[in-house]
Amino acid sequence: MQELVYLNGWVGSFDNAHISINDRGYNFGDGIYEVVRTYDGKMFAVDDHLKRLETSAAVLEIGLPWDKKQLNAIISDLLEQSEIREAIIYIQITRGTAHRNHLYDPDIRPNLLITIRSTPDISQSTYIQGVNIISCPEFRWQMCHVKSTSLAAAVMAKNKAHRAGAAEAVFVMDDGIVTECTSSNIFIYKGGTLMTHPANNRILAGITRKHILNLAEDMGMHIRPEPFKFEDMIGADEVFLTGSTSEVIPVVDIDGQIIAGGKPGPITGKLHQAFISLRS
Question: Catalytic pick from 42, 69, 147, 160?
Fold first, then answer.
């Protein structure tokens, strides 16, 4: 097994991969990305990820010279070469390489980067015991539905959480509305209803989020994809996070306030088990 890099047709190791300092992703964060998880060598929901990649590119007016079929073929070939069965596939497309200028040539060719790495281990105690998170004022840009490489705000919030001994930071608007976390979506379950912020420009609608909503619907749960406030989250029966790498993680503490007795709830566990069955 070998962790590999694909860069505009070149394939090699991380140590030998290089890109120009004139890449617009480096200079401006002018790019988009996706993260795909594999289970036993099979990519989970890759079509969903590639559709979202195309949507992000369209919003930022990045003309893609590859269609979904071509990208899928490139990714599949690199995954096969790596021989890694449990992998994290990172796909990044920047607008291209040119001398630093806010204005860009509309005919510039994008740079395509794909990396294959082994999936990081997540302790089973994370799912059994749950995690604590902190809240953070929402100070990001207003195009969160684009999976942009401009992640400075998320990086700052994630590190603030780490310094506080927390697993995540959840963004809260000035009016108390909860949006999402730095690298995951957030759900609450209260009074028999499952809630998460609607898929608009305030959040990145995660692929795992989508499948959890589908599974909840299949189970006959009452679902309300609408904004909820910080106090609703603190008073919820259950709170959990979703993400491609982490899947479904229960939250038991927010800003030091214990959620529902400090133990993961049954709905969170049921949805996680259903997701495991789905991706197996």
Answer: 147
